[in-house]
Structures are given as C-alpha cells and as structure tokens.
Amino acid sequence: MTEALIAALFVFVLASFIGFEVINKVPPTLHTPLMSGSNAISGIAVLGAIVAAGAKESNISVILGLTAVILATINVVGGFLVTDRMLEMFKKKAS
C-alpha cells in the first residue's frame, strides 16, 4: 500500500510539473484551440472519475473518486466558460 501511494504521488507531482511547464510555453494564439482539446480530455477524466467512485472497494476510493468527479467537472465547466469568453473577443461588434 505504501509503495503504491508513493508511486502515485510521484506520478502526480511529475504530471503537475510537466503540465505547468507545457501550459506556460503555449502562445496566446494557440490557447483557444488547445483549450477545446483539453475540455474533451477533461470529459474523459470525468468518466474515469465516475468509474473510480463507483468501484466501492473502500471508503477512501469512493471519497477520492467523488472528489475527482467534482474537480474534473469544475475543470470542464471552467474550460468551456473560458473558451466561450475568448471566442466572444473575436466576434465583430454590431455598430
């Protein structure tokens, strides 16, 4: 159990660092298309979190799964809101 937890934490920290570095290197002109793609991936993460929450192997897996569902859903909704807001900037204003 302890080795699996340490391995999972290592993967989490590594993925967080790499994700942060990759996002900081994206130019603003590519942000909206990449955001749309990341929303699709986040939708898959929601499905994976639902599967993890429904496994009911232990109480901790249900709690972590529910937390993952909530956070992934916030990520999807926030991503769509940001994408929509950025796309509004490119629409021509009616005068």
Automatic annotation (TrEMBL):
It catalyses: NAD(+) + NADPH + H(+)(in) = NADH + NADP(+) + H(+)(out). One of its GO terms (molecular function) is NADP binding. It is found in: Cell inner membrane. One of its GO terms (cellular component) is plasma membrane. It is an enzyme of class 7 (translocase). The chain crosses the membrane at residues 35-55, 62-82. Keywords: Cell inner membrane, Cell membrane, Membrane, NAD, NADP, Translocase, Transmembrane, Transmembrane helix. One of its GO terms (biological process) is NADPH regeneration. Its EC number is 7.1.1.1. It is a multi-pass membrane protein. The keyword Membrane applies. InterPro entries: NADP_transhyd_a_C. Signal peptide: none annotated. Residues 9-92 form the NAD(P) transhydrogenase alpha subunit C-terminal domain. PANTHER family: NAD(P) TRANSHYDROGENASE, PROTON-TRANSLOCATING NAD(P)(+) TRANSHYDROGENASE. The transhydrogenation between NADH and NADP is coupled to respiration and ATP hydrolysis and functions as a proton pump across the membrane. This is proton-translocating NAD(P)(+) transhydrogenase.
